Amino acid sequence: MDPSLMVVGLNYRTAPVGVRERFCIDESRRYQALLHLSRAEGIEEVIVLSTCNRTEFLLWASDVTLAANSVMRLLGADYGLKLEEWKHFYRLLDEAALRHIFRVVSCLDSMVLGAPHIVSEVKDAWQQAQKVGATARFLDAVMQKALTVSERVRHETAIGKASASIPGTAVELARQIFGSLDNKKVLMLGAGEMSELAVRELLKQSARQISINVINRTFEHAAELAAKLGGVAYPFEERWQHMIAADIIISSTSCPHRILTRDEAERIVQQRKQEHNNEQKSEQKIEHKKDCQVPNVAKIGAAAGDDARTAINPAVPPLLIADLAMPRDIDPAVRNVKGIFLYDLDDLENVTDDTTAEREAAAAEAQKILHEEAQGFRRKLIAESVVPTIVQVRQRLDEVCRQELDAFRNETGPFSEDQNEMLSAVLARMTQRIAASLARELKEFPEKGEQEQMTRALQRLFHLQSPQTSDQRVAGAKSA
């Protein structure tokens, strides 16, 4: 079986956030997954891409069935994948896989059309795979081409200008809930890219006098981000008091477990109510003192009969929590706590309007580019896949010619040095022309199935072994 490009994975279209977070693979675990899969059956090269929207395995597979089973075994052993959950995963081959990779890197398969952060996430995943030695010329070529296509889409279409963003959607929700973002207290839990983008969106929309506090398990990272955003950093241990005081919490940590449960959220709401009531009492005392200092019979009389002046306002300002983490930071049950508006990634995707005419037009233009680029690169990829067979054919022809030349010398020789050189040159030219003709025929087949048939025919005709694919070092490691 000839090697194939394959993508195995799930994303926000095929799996809800509760399923995606179970199979989210952070950077440290990606390293182990890469090591394991690069030595697994059926896999020659591998990249592991895991973001808030998707977990995907990009594979150059010598046997697609064995490769898919290797991925499934890894997910079963390390992430508890059950057989009935396999329905959330897709398996794409060859051209479908290539188109999918191009769509992902070009930001056309993002939860928010055109969201640019996927490009840096793809680059990070590719670099990590290269460091481990899990990629070679085939996947490296695919990724390089995908990034080139992404650049072309950005420059030739309005996909970047038309894009919204998940952080931007969170900010718009905050505006709808609070009316105005002025004087709001924003707490960042985690120093991740998503939370930083959300706060920058707040600042960009000219919300004045926003107070920004940053809390991260690594205080140095919190301090660095706070300095960039004009905020203040605090230790992780002080998070509770700042959660109580916040109007908006943007959470995007890499913590593997929940950092806020429903019980904790209810206690936060109770404390917020108590502090709000205390503030109301203080304000009432100040106003009452002012009234006493400025005697006004009419005003005092009105106050005495006005419940709004004497009663403590029971209303508590709402708390908006945007959980941008994967896996989620906040227990989903927190959305049932009165006074808290909790939105996770799926919630934000559902309220994001990605259907504007501008975005649809940009996406249609981008799809044309992807189709054109995928067809051209697929032909190149198919041609590259037959190189090992072409090399073997050339070696076999050289071997046959050497044998025949030796037999001819024994029968009719000896020859002079000049004659020997002439005979060798003639045979070398013949083998070169035959090999070049066969190579041209193999590379010009438009369909992979036809090319595979021709390749098998050549292997039988010249008594060749099935050529090793891709990376000899990886293959050696597997057999070791």
Question: Briefly, what is this?
Answer:
58% of the residues lie in helices and 11% in strands. With 480 residues, the chain is of the alpha/beta class.
Task: Describe the 3D structure.
By secondary structure, this protein is an alpha/beta fold. Helices cover 58% and strands 11% of the residues. Strands 7-6-5-8-9-10 form a six-stranded parallel β-sheet, with helices on both faces. α8 links the parallel β5 (185-189) and β6 (211-215). The longest helix has 32 residues, at 262-293. Mean pLDDT is 82; it is low at 292-314 and 468-480.
SSE topology sketch:
Blueprint: E1 4-11, H1 17-20, H2 27-38, E2 43-50, E3 54-61, H3 64-79, E4 90-93, H4 94-105, H5 117-132, H6 137-156, H7 166-178, E5 185-189, H8 193-204, E6 211-215, H9 219-229, E7 232-234, H10 239-245, E8 248-251, H11 262-293, H12 297-304, H13 307-310, E9 319-323, E10 340-343, H14 345-351, H15 357-385, H16 387-412, H17 417-443, H18 448-461, H19 472-479
Parallel strand pairs: 5-6, 5-8, 6-7, 8-9, 9-10
Antiparallel strand pairs: 1-3, 1-4, 2-3
Helix pairs in contact: 4-6, 4-15, 6-15, 7-8, 10-11, 16-17
Count of alpha and pi helical runs:
19
Approximately how much beta-strand content do the residues carry? Answer: 5-15%
H/E series: EHHEEHEHHHHEHEHEHEHHHEEHHHHHH
Shape: elongated
**Quaternary assembly:** single chain
Structural class by helix and strand composition: alpha/beta
Spatial strand order of the main sheet: 7-6-5-8-9-10
What's the rounded overall pLDDT mean?
Answer: 82
Radius of gyration using CA atoms only: 32 Å
Roughly how many Å apart are the termini? 22 Å
What percent of the residues sit in helical stretches (DSSP H or I)? 55-70%
Model regions low in confidence, pLDDT < 50 over at least 5 residues: 292-314, 468-480
Number of strands: 10
Major sheet, described briefly? Answer: 6 strands, parallel
